[in-house]
Amino acid sequence: MVRLAWPGWWLAFLVAAGSPVSAQANVLPPRVELKENYPNPFFPATTIPFEISREVCARGHQPVVSLKIYNVLVQVVAVPTLASGSGEKLDSLRLRCGEYRAFWDGKYLDGKRQAIPGVYYYQLTVDGERFTRKMIAQKRVATGK
Fold it and tell me: Sign of dihedral through CA atoms 134, 70, 77, 61?
């Protein structure tokens, strides 16, 4: 019998990196998936995709969903809208399970000021469970053409 003596951190890295070591039959798909916004970096607007699995909506449950944009001072600066035809703000909405796209026009809550270039965080809350990602607002650089 051959015994491999790998340092613990290396095995943890392999598992985190999705190597064959981590392939297990009992891994469950995520109940909620907050995906990367696009474009990222963005200016002036961005789209934020997310998905709520069917498991969350068992027995007809419709989860309460909110999506908020925060600045680096952890202040809410915007609430995106659903990209579907309704255009409702994603603030405590009851949604069915499925795939969604949220849209942020890059304007602050007052609707007048455009977001300044910098780092922002978007946080999806589904029935109190939070999922957070980072995005970057960046002004387009003019080319000399």
Answer: positive
pLDDT (tens digit, 9 = 90+) per residue, 48-107? 999 999 999 999 999 999 999 999 999 999 999 999 877 899 999 999 999 999 999 999
Q: How far apart are CA 102 and CA 81, in angstroms?
A: 5
Cα–Cα distances in angstroms (integers) from residue 22 to residues 9, 16, 33, in the given order: 14, 8, 20
Question: Max alpha carbon distance in the chain (Å)?
Answer: 70
pTM for the full model? 0.75
Short-list 117, 90, 115, 110, CA closest to 34:
90
Beta-bridged to residue 42, according to DSSP, are 137
DSSP state letters, 60-110 = G---EEEEEEE-TT--EEE--EESSTT--B-SSEE--SEEEEEEE-SB-TT
128 and 85 in contact (C-beta within 8 Å)? no
